Amino acid sequence: MATDPADTRKQWLLSRDECRCCCSSTRPKILLSIAALALLVTAAVVIGASVGATRASARNHRHKKSSNAATFDENYNISWSGDHVRLLNGGLLADILLDKQSGAEFGSKRSYLFGHLKMQMKLVANDSAGTVTAFYMASHTENRDEFDFEFLGNRSGQPYALQTNIYVNGTGGREQRILLWFDPSLDYHTYSVLWNQYQVIFFVDDTPVRVFRNNSHLGVPYAFSQPMRIFGSMWNGEQWATVGGLEKTNWNYAPFIASFQDFAIDGCDPSSSPGDPGFCFSSGNRNHWWDEEKYRVLDVGQLDNLGSIVRNYTIYDYCTDTKRYSPVPPECGANP
């Protein structure tokens, strides 16, 4: 009998009753079946074909990339646990180490308001259960704005989960989780946020996995006033990260290592023009490339790829959590 994709996703679903930013430790243990693995492989092939078919469109729509490589020290500082960060290859590569004593974090020297903010990462290999590796942006103000990529470790042979979240004016609770359709520990992949006045797009390589539109006309707050710094970090999240905290960190595999590279930043630093409060907004003769018309909405190919991600890989979406949100937040019906 053919495996129903919906049934397979249920095996990994962080249910509406049990999943919040942290998941209940009482949830029954979830194991990935052979049928689930087969479905993930099949879905990955479908995604790959879809991405390939729309590659030309993606090139036309794709965020521009910085032309010059940047070293870690040019744009970043270590925030805490410097003895758990090692710089390699002349500062073009940074490893974060996690052991029983500590994880670590680094952050950008400057804050940015809009742009294309990215990082290439290779995640913890093999048994990474309990670990959380993050690439995120945050204003670190009382009512903070924040965009999160959080990679939740797994038991060997099971897929990595990616949790994204969005805070605006101090309010989050917009978690979405997907299963990655590839092994992110085998090679570097690019994780990025394209942020402009119109939308926030989360990308995995060239594939959009989430869109948060500017729906301020619906009364939904949007992040366009607080510059944010960019961070990379890793810590022990065994109380919630893997199967709701049932799968604990196996310290026999420590130190866990996540690698980061590509430290160029393509964003607007408002402090570079302190006398101009509108410096980061495109208007008149001032045009930032990320505000160009083609970056204001997803194109047809990207919408198709996003739809494939939603159908085949989503395991939690706050927009469908009617026990948590009733009625559902107004942006849920307006985002792609």
Question: Mind explaining what this structure looks like?
Answer:
With 336 residues, the protein is α+β, with helices and mostly antiparallel strands. The protein has one domain (72-320): Jelly Rolls, CATH 2.60.120.200. The chain has 5 helices and 16 strands. Strand 6 (131-138) and strand 7 (146-152) form a beta hairpin. The radius of gyration is 20 Å and the shape is globular. Residues 1-39 and 49-61 have low confidence and may be disordered.
Which features does this protein show?
336 residues, alpha+beta, Jelly Rolls, eight-stranded antiparallel β-sheet, 5 helices, 16 strands, disordered N terminus
Q: Briefly, what is this?
A:
Catalyzes xyloglucan endohydrolysis (XEH) and/or endotransglycosylation (XET). Cleaves and religates xyloglucan polymers, an essential constituent of the primary cell wall, and thereby participates in cell wall construction of growing tissues. This protein has 336 residues and is an alpha+beta fold.
Uncertain regions spanning at least 5 consecutive residues: 1-39, 49-61
Task: Specify the structural class.
Answer: alpha+beta
Characterize the main sheet.
Answer: 8 strands, antiparallel
Shape: globular
Strand order of the largest sheet: 1-4-13-6-7-8-9-16
Distance between the termini: 33 Å
Tell me the name of the CATH class: Mainly Beta
Task: Give the name of the CATH architecture.
Answer: Sandwich
Number of domains in the coordinates? 1
Mean pLDDT: 85
Q: How many individual helices? A: 5
Number of strands: 16
| CATH topology type | Jelly Rolls
Strand content: 25-35%
The value of Rg in angstroms is 20 Å
Helix content: 10-25%
The run of helices and strands is HHHHEEEEEEEEEEEEEEEHE
